[in-house]
Amino acid sequence: MRMPPKYTQLAAQLVMGLATLATLAILVFIILFVLEKGLPVVGLKFLLSNPQDMGKAGGIFPVVVGTILLTLVAIAIATPLGVGTAIYLTEYTRESRITRVIRFGADCLAGIPSIIFGLFGFIFFVTILQMGWSILSGGLTLAFMILPTIIRTSEEAIKSVPDSFREVSFSLGATRWETVQKVVLPSALPGIVTGVMLGVGRSIGETAAVIFTAGSSLRMPTSLMDSARTMSVHFYILAREGISTENAYGTAAILVITILLINLTAYGLMNRFVAKNN
Amino acid sequence: MNNKIEIKKLNLHYGKFQALKAVDLPVGENSITALIGPSGCGKSTLLRCINRMNDLIAGVRIDGRVLLDGRNIYRHGLNVPELRKRVGMVFQRPNPFPLSVYDNVAYGLKVAGISDKDRISQTVEGSLKGAWLWDNLKDRLDKPALDLPLDQQQRLCIARLLAVEPEVILMDEPCSALDPIATMKVEELMLELRKKYTIAIVTHNMQQAARVSEYSGYMLLGDMVEFDLTANIFTNPKDSRTQDYITGRYG
After folding, report:
1. Do B56 and A178 touch (CB under 8 A)?
2. Does residue A276 surpass a pLDDT of 80?
3. Strand B215-220 relative to strand B223-229, pairing
4. Is B89 near chain A, with CB under 8 Å?
5. Residues of B whose CB is below 8 A from A178
6. Residue of B198, B230, B207 lying closest to B2 (CA atoms)
7. pLDDT tens-digit profile of B205-230?
8. Distance between CA atoms of B87 and B71, rounded to whole angstroms?
9. High-pLDDT (> 90) share of chain A, %
10. Is the pLDDT of residue A65 over 70?
11. Burial code of B7-22, b = ≥16 C-beta within 10 A, e = fewer?
12. How high does pLDDT run on average in chain B?
């Protein structure tokens, strides 16, 4: 017994459509829920004033600064390492057992829970290298955590550059490095930027890896060796210790908005880049 | 006539497969030499030996000699990028970079480290004129190259090549993606370019070989079956296999 194709077609379309709708609805629900609870306390004053009484009152300015600094350190370290690795794997080696091992390693690294990175960072950077709880320790730990994402997205972006571009470049007398610099990287840029943006998003939202390595100081950081608290850590502490539910949701709202903005920027950058090239 | 290039006893293996079998080929200076033969006969592979593009493929072994102005380009220590500046290539499909017309033509100069803007503009203009594109494109230099019609894209690729001032131009079925009218324009351009450059062309199109080339080589299964004046190849071939091919009984 088979249903007529007309009905199976309709049923399939309906089921897939519902799945899509459910996904979208969940996303919208979460965002609206957080914003509804958080937005009443959010304002310029909340963003730009110092917290008082462990965060019960006042704003989250040092937390915002700490989040930005940590993310910048992580990206500044992970981008050159990740893009460099991706270029090496795709342009300078032929597919072999070694490249497969490296790729497998990167994939494993991506699957490690962030709290393990936190523990590693605590033992290695904070204790053994004596960096203490600091933005530097936290940034380095985050860099290792987002490295696989950047490597794999950059690799895919570089691989999608047509071989004919490389061929022409070589045929015009360019060396491999000149070809990478002038043809491959510019064409792969949107993909690479997307990977970096994903890394930024992960860094900003990370809690477990950061709390062990950057600490949770509420003071304004003045150097990379200072401890700092990120927005997600702040949210965790405010909520976990029952300090202030309102301020916790306020922080969460800003976190959600920030990540939305980053994704929109990445999306916009990509579209502009693609439009320029076609 | 002077031979710009002389290929002598060239063997090429892809792994265990022998794609070229002791091939000899002279390419006369300021002339057009055509390589004809059925698909897979090794004519493109042979062409790509002249600018060492086969170096990029894993598992290729080459022995024999390719002399450019009397010196073997497979000699130890030869600077391959420099060789490729002297021996340029036009590919089967028009393949401009996804950049503007101007940046495409200027690419080779930027690679060569030339940053003098006036000099770059002059070369871009000269190269576009050389490829008969200047009048069409002089007001649209900042337009994306990929928006051009295919035949202009292919001539843009030729202009991009002229900008690095090669001595030899290798053309690998340069018209196979073009319609007959565009093909005619590119062929006329080839005849003009011959005055300044040495050209070797691979083509599937026998009429094309007959129209543009002075000399032709017929290849089959990695062998150079016959090499002669194009007129002789097409009117009075010595080898029965050449005769079968040009009369359409084979290939």
Report:
1. no
2. no
3. antiparallel
4. yes
5. 111
6. B198
7. 888 998 999 999 999 998 899 999 99
8. 14
9. 36
10. yes
11. beebebeeeeeebbee
12. 90
Q: Is B75 on the interface with A (CB under 8 A)?
A: no
Sheet holding B32-36, edge to edge: B87-90, B168-172, B198-202, B32-36, B215-220, B223-229
Domain range annotation of chain A: 62-277
Please state whether the predicted TM-score (pTM) of the whole model is above 0.90: no
Query: Which one-letter amino acid corresponds to residue B115?
Result: S
> What interface predicted TM-score (ipTM) does this complex get?
0.90
pLDDT mean across residues, chain A: 88
Q: Which residues of B fall within a CB distance of 8 Å from A277?
A: 98, 144
The pair of structure tokens assigned to A200 is 């930024």
> In whole angstroms, what separates CA A106 from the centre of its chain?
16
Residue A199 structure tokens: 């890394």
Q: Which residues pair with B10 in a beta bridge?
A: B23
CATH number of the domain at A62-277, please? Answer: 1.10.3720.10
Assess B164–A contact: CB distance below 8 Å, yes or no: yes
Q: Could you tell me the two tokens for A58? A: 């006042």
Q: What is the CA radius of gyration of chain A?
A: 23
Entry field: residues in chain B: 251
In the predicted structure, residue B55 carries a pLDDT above the cut 90: no
Tell me: pLDDT of A277 over 60.
no
Helices (H) and strands (E) in chain A, counts: 12, 2
**Residues ≥6 apart with Cβ < 8 Å to B226:** B217, B218, B233, B237, B238, B239, B241, B242
**In which band, very low, low, confident or very high, does the pLDDT at A273 lie, cut at 50, 70 and 90?**
low
Residue A191, CA distances (Å) to A111, A149, A179 in order: 21, 12, 18
pLDDT band at residue A176 using 50, 70 and 90 as cut-offs: very high
Nearest to B217 by CA among B231, B202, B227, B225: B227
Residue showing tokens 């029952």: A242
A248 contact partners, CB below 8 Å, separation of at least 6: A235, A238, A239
What are B85-102's pLDDT values in tens digits? Answer: 999 999 999 999 988 999
Do the chains contact at A169 and B107, CB–CB below 8 Å? yes
Tokens encoding A29: 């629900």
CB count within 10 Å of CB B129 equals: 14
pLDDT (average), residues B189-202:
92
Q: What domains are defined for chain B? A: 3-95+166-246 (3.40.50.300)
Alpha-carbon distances, residue B71 vs B52, B61, B146, B198 (angstroms): 14, 20, 38, 16
A and B: number of Cβ contacts within 8 A: 60
